[in-house]
């Protein structure tokens, strides 16, 4: 029998990620030492207290029933975390919903909020589930380009009036993947004003809320006056606590938006494994020194990679946050040709920028998912490839992004 998947599945992009994975496999089979900087999966374990709580709860035979909803302790832990980390006051019984990782939340929000034909405003480049979720829901994507000249923030004034009027959803992600730009409170205030004016629901993906460098902090969207009226924030324990494989996260904010999500999700699953919820409570209520340790670790990786790439003749811009360098590629390549050249000739896997949308052309994303020494090796190998591909002009460091003082 010829099985034909539904149109909503057929229209999903097959993905450069599959192509890249196949090329990585081929390089490994050929005996190459591949340094994989293409996937943003944390390479470190969760804090010991989280593993202890998880393993104790797994041995407790009372923990194996359906959970249906989040434990009240989980919702309270999220509220306390938001108060302590972002100065945002939330009510645990109104403003928090649990998700199986933020991918789960983001994947289903568009289904819960959009009718076929509704317009969603999506960052380009952007994390792939934003666009996929809108397409699955039958919505129309209107891309918000993230341009260097605009500090990689969407320019809301560029959105045509008729698009703004039809828009029902806007997704934002700061600091983001693949573009690590931080939002400002002023930008978020403009977003709230725009959302109110046009009746647009805002979803801010805050998955990298805690991976912010150089003593800076990322503002929560909900810290801005009026945000709770128009939107929600999605957050996750995956990156903050290295819990990417034990899937747990949360949506916080406007109760009506959360209720729409819950109404849909109630038909799809029966809640998260109790031991995982208990482990998440241990993470959220644990020693904040863990968070500082994470920041220092990724800062050290960023500094190692960026300074080694500068020394190798590629002056990439150091990211202010996240686990990614968003690097303008040298002249003479496309994002894909550059990524595949690095894989084939340097044995270094990075992700071509256009995998995240058309405005990602001209960039690659390099994930800081290896120790500093390995990142320096990757940079040295990239430098050798760059020397061989003459003539070559590397992009100058960006104005306003002068090399930081820690560079040699
Ligand atoms: C921007 C962004 N949002 C969401 C996710 C999904 O994370 P998780 O489902 O593990 O919470 C990721 C994962 O890489 C991400 O980069």
Task: Give structural notes.
The protein has 408 residues and is of the alpha/beta class. 40% of the residues lie in helices and 13% in strands. The chain has 14 helices and twelve strands. Strand 5, helix 8 (185-198) and strand 6 form a beta-alpha-beta unit. Mean pLDDT is 93; it is low at 391-408. It binds pyridoxal-5'-phosphate.
Question: What's a quick, concise take on this entry?
Answer:
The chain has 408 residues and is an alpha/beta fold.
Task: Throw out a few tags for this protein.
408 residues, Aspartate Aminotransferase, domain 2, 2 domains, seven-stranded mixed beta sheet, three-stranded antiparallel beta sheet, 14 helices, binds pyridoxal-5'-phosphate
Present the secondary structure layout.
Elements: H1 7-10, H2 16-29, E1 35-36, H3 48-59, H4 72-86, E2 96-99, H5 102-113, E3 119-124, H6 129-136, E4 140-145, H7 161-166, E5 167-172, H8 185-198, E6 201-205, H9 227-230, E7 231-236, E8 249-253, H10 255-265, H11 274-284, H12 289-311, E9 324-328, H13 335-346, E10 348-349, E11 351-352, E12 363-367, H14 372-388
Bound molecules: pyridoxal-5'-phosphate.
The site of pyridoxal-5'-phosphate (PLP) has 14 residues, from helix 5.
